[in-house]
Each structure stands twice: as structure tokens, then as C-alpha cells.
Amino acid sequence: MSMSLSPYLNFAGNGREAMTYYQSVFGGELHLFGFAEYGLDGPADGLMHGNLQVRPGMSISASDAMPGAEQTWGGTRVYCSIFGDDAATMQGWFEALAVDGSIGMPLEKQVWGDLYGLVKDKYGIEWMFNVGAAEGTQQS
């Protein structure tokens, strides 16, 4: 059985900008659809749905919230977690997300043996990275 989990992010009017930014960090194929394209009520230039397919099993979806909706979000905290064993790729993503953002915990070796770090991007989304050691290799 194959499963995947994809974060669905909600933005307060800058969803297109954020998804384009995430594509610049992760690469992949980006599709953006506005409210107007479907004849729906919503912000004229708002993002009704966006999807970034980074690689098999890894995608990010997003939309802009309806005006005023951010007041009802209630401080929900969501972390996007990325697990893998490609240290170079994940280090690059971590560093790119830190630009104009902030590092909560540097990406470094932890007591469980993996590299782990936490970064908040310039849109306030927090990303957890856990780089597991590939079989037969050591993390430094």
C-alpha cells in the first residue's frame, strides 16, 4: 500500500507568491488556479488552489483564505515535516527557507543520530527537517 501526506497551507492573500517561492526552493511542477478562473466569489487575484508536485510522494497545496478568515484560524500551529536521507538536497532546502526567515534550531546531528533542524520561512510556515543516515554512512 502506498500513502502520502501533503500539507495544505492557507495564506492571507499572498498564496501565489508563497507557492512560487516554494517552487524556487524545492523545484517541481507548479499549478495555480484563481477564484476568477472558476467563476467563484473570492479575491480577484486570489489563489483558489495551488499545487506544487516536488517529487513522487511529496507535494504542497495551498489557497488564499477568504478575507477576514485569518481571524478565525485560532493560532493553529502546523509544522511541515520533511524526512529523507539526501543530506545535500535537504541542507539546500533548509538554507533557502531560512533566507528572510529564521532558524529555530540549526540542522545538526541530534542524540538519535540523525540531522534535525527547524526553520520558519518568510511566510511564517515552520519546517522540520530530519535527515536520516543512509545505510552504511555516518552523519557529521
Order of helices and strands: EHEEEEHEEE
Count of the separate structural domains: 2
Backbone structural class: alpha/beta
Task: Report the biggest beta sheet as strand number plus sense, adding barrel if it closes.
Answer: 4 strands, mixed
Strand % is 35-45%
How confident is the prediction overall: mean pLDDT?
84
Radius of gyration: 17 Å
Q: Specify the helix fraction band.
A: 10-25%
Description:
With 140 residues, the protein is an alpha/beta fold. It folds into two domains: 8-66, Signal recognition particle alu RNA binding heterodimer, srp9/1, CATH 3.30.720.100; 79-131, Roll (2,3-Dihydroxybiphenyl 1,2-Dioxygenase, domain 1), CATH 3.10.180.10. The chain has helices at residues 15-26, 87-98, and strands spanning 8-11, 29-34, 47-55, 58-64, 79-84, 102-109, 115-120, 126-131. β3 and β4 (58-64) form a beta hairpin. The model is unreliable at 135-140 (pLDDT under 50).
Could you provide a short overview of the structure?
With 140 residues, the protein is α/β, with parallel strands linked by helices. It has helices spanning 15-26, 87-98; strands at 8-11, 29-34, 47-55, 58-64, 79-84, 102-109, 115-120, 126-131. The strands form 2 sheets. The protein has a 4-stranded mixed β-sheet, covered by helices on one side. Strands 5-8-7-6 form a 4-stranded mixed β-sheet, with helices on one face.
Labels describing this entry:
140 residues; alpha/beta; Signal recognition particle alu RNA binding heterodimer, srp9/1; 2,3-Dihydroxybiphenyl 1,2-Dioxygenase, domain 1; 2 domains; four-stranded mixed β-sheet; 2 helices; elongated; disordered C terminus
